[in-house]
């Protein structure tokens, strides 16, 4: 009897590093092999950075073997922390199958574009694919939570909690995050602004009630700096507030 046919791999040009990695001094510190097998709820992928002005972005996609389609599922990957020395990504796989995590980078200090790898829009300078992982999820968790959405000012910040992007109504949620150069940090739900307290260094925290209505919770920060208007608040994170669904036992 003929053996069973293996599912096809995603139709992408390559997996692994490109010359962009060496050119920008980026090194994978957690997963040097581009093939990652996932049997748990979350994967941490870390990179070392050696250049201060390196800009990063990413994509996360699911490959459906049934019809060959590739779809974006960006809320299942999260840049948890970023500094001049490194970047820490959290990745969750919501189902069994093939996933593609791509890291894009550019040298913003010299405003140059490297002509290797795939292009990814990143303002006036295009970002090139530096590393691409193929993640194979064999045993997904029963309940895989999405992450919060990040905005441009999230650079140099770090999130400690909450990591789940969906928050339930009528809950008291602890927010803890690091926001360098912030003068004030607020969580905005509806028309109410909840002020987070500054702790040691760049750390901000506070307990926030999510309210009784579904909607969104947005984290805003007011930054210091010679080139910033200190009267302006910038979005850095956004959560969705949803109603908790009761399950029958």
From TrEMBL:
Residues 24-148 form the KY-like immunoglobulin-like domain. InterPro entries: Ig-like_KY (IPR056564), Transglut-like_Superfamily_Mod (IPR053041). This is Kyphoscoliosis peptidase. It comes from Elysia marginata.
